[in-house]
Amino acid sequence: MDKHRIVVIGAGIAGLSAALDLAGEGYDVVVCEAAGEPGGKMRQVELAGMRVDSGPTVFTMRWVFDELFAAAGTSLEAQVTMAPLEILARHAWQDGERLDLFADIERSIDAIGQSFGRAEAEGYRNFCRDAGRVYRTLEQTFIKSERPSVTQLISGFGLSGVGELLKAHPFESMWSELGKYFKDPKLQQLFGRYATYCGSSPFEAPATLTLVAHVEQQGVWRIAGGLQSLAFAIETLAKSKGANFRYGAKV
What we know:
about 250 residues; three-stranded parallel β-sheet; 11 helices; about 45% helix; single chain
């Protein structure tokens, strides 16, 4: 087999991104996908004659895709229509309590203060500060690393930086860490949802995952036509670079 021919299994977002990068580098790329269209988890289903997102519904960490599209010689804005969201999330409980979180942290602090009191609002301010610190601690050494590992993470900090690494709370559960900021069980429940973004439990996942809160605060976007539109955009661009896609091809 020609060593320059590459088969990518799966047309989820990882497979699509790999196909685009590799095709752009001149490799002969074939993507095999069992489903009938791209997207993987980022797919839509038809309900009452409308296509509705059944996986992720909003877009974060935009810089990842800005870099992906720039490397392909275009821009994210040129390929998909996006709009930033003012309200990041809306929460409701059975007793009628409601809480919106906003892109503007101060608005979120005010909303929490009005519903849960000043102490909880200050807890949220401190939570945002510390989530940002955890993110910055791991941004270069882990999040943006091509081959992240615990060994690389520790070596990236060196012995003198181990103390800073421990401030990311890798040995504490998210649930126990949330209790340091919030006393109200509703807020503990609400912010525990960040662990579920990657299929984890806040009772077992490390408190390091509080960094997801910081990611969300850096911006959430809505993509016109649903999030699968992003998958179709990457597929189209990869095809323009020479990648071939085979759907209904179970591997």
